[in-house]
């Protein structure tokens, strides 16, 4: 597994990042996420945190990724190479988060992978640009 150390201040839409986040059962899991909104303002009536991180969870603790990973990345935007040797990619998302969500709604609901994270808790963890295991034909086309 190759990864590049990153900084929370540099995280933008389309980055594929990994970080450790606690579950409700208090287990610390490594999550790989395609970022849709890095610092979304929490507009709840009684917000516990001012900001949230919205994203599509691609992997949890290095288990097999979502079965339709290539389709998710292609639908979200234009897939670009960040580091070819380490197999690190990002997605250039030009449309709004709502439009991307509507396009991917069926897949996201089927696998339950649209996630919202407490931004304050997420920032306590180190962040990395994460590599992905993509089909060889897809990588060659990039």
Shape assignment: globular
Cα-to-Cα separation, first versus last residue: 20 Å
How many separate domains?
1
Mean pLDDT, nearest integer?
90
| Strand order in the largest sheet | 1-8-2-3-4-7
Helix content: 10-25%
- Structure annotation, total helices: 4
- The SSE string, one letter per element, is EEEEHEEHEHEH
Main β sheet profile: 6 strands, antiparallel
Find the structural class using helix and strand composition. alpha+beta
Q: Pick out the low-confidence regions.
A: none
Radius of gyration: 15 Å
Strand fraction: 35-45%
Would you count the extended β strands for me?
A: 8
Structure in words:
The longest helix has 15 residues, at 97-111. The protein is α+β, with helices and mostly antiparallel strands and 142 residues long. The protein has one domain (3-132). The mean pLDDT is 90. It is globular, with a radius of gyration of 15 Å. The chain contains 4 helices and 8 strands. β2 (16-22) and β3 form a beta hairpin.
Please describe the topology of this protein.
Blueprint: E1 3-5, E2 16-22, E3 28-41, E4 51-60, H1 69-76, E5 78-83, E6 88-92, H2 97-111, E7 114-118, H3 119-123, E8 128-130, H4 136-141
Antiparallel strand pairs: 1-8, 2-3, 2-8, 3-4, 4-7, 5-6
